[in-house]
Design goal:
about 180 residues, 10 helices, mainly alpha, Arc Repressor Mutant, subunit A
Length: about 180
């Protein structure tokens, strides 16, 4: 059963959670769990790992209560947590690749047209340096403003603008993306 949408703002929910209202924390979880999983998957490339990151992220977040102060959007707080946990899991998994995982990787099914387009986009994005790719995805996938990206990554607004500009220029010059940007 899908939980009932809570009309309270994130700020009101954080306040209630600080007061011990468990349902307020559950509502925050319901609002942001899908975003956390998508972001974690982007970093890990593995659904099971993304779910582990989800669990660890909200365990970490729950420990912040009572006393958590929301000074920006919740995604601004959660982003570095998800990123760091994802990187840690990815590093750990590089050391431990089971035979079953190796077989699963080798026997991957052929992608459908939509999957081919996604794979092509992933290939184009992989050309970008990690810092430029990160800013690009935060802007266009997660819908963050440039200011929010700067706050999330703890970098200057000018740096965000520069990274985004350079990333877009690289994409505009790539033959695979010209149909999206024009000539």
């Amino acid at each position: 059963m899908k939980p009932v949408d809570d009309p309270r703002s994130d700020e009101a929910l954080v306040h209630s959670a600080n007061e011990g209202d468990l349902s307020a924390f559950e509502t925050i979880y319901d609002r942001y769990r899908d975003w956390v999983v998508r972001l974690a998957y982007r970093f890990t490339g593995n659904h099971e790992d993304a779910l582990d990151v989800l669990q660890e992220t909200f365990t970490y977040f729950a420990k912040k209560f009572p006393g958590f102060r929301l000074s920006a959007r919740i995604t601004t707080f959660l982003y570095p947590v998800v990123r760091n946990l994802s990187i840690a899991i990815r590093r750990k998994n590089r050391r431990y690749v089971s035979d079953e995982e190796m077989i699963r990787r080798m026997a991957a099914p052929q992608p459908a047209d939509d999957a081919v387009a996604r794979a092509e986009l992933a290939a184009v994005l992989s050309v970008l340096p990690a810092k430029q790719r990160e800013v690009l995805l935060l802007r266009f996938v997660d819908g963050m403003t440039l200011k929010e990206i700067a706050e999330t990554l703890s970098i200057r607004l000018g740096t965000v603008k520069s990274r985004l500009h350079i990333a877009l220029e690289v994409l505009r010059k790539d033959e695979r993306t010209k149909r999206y940007f024009g000539r």
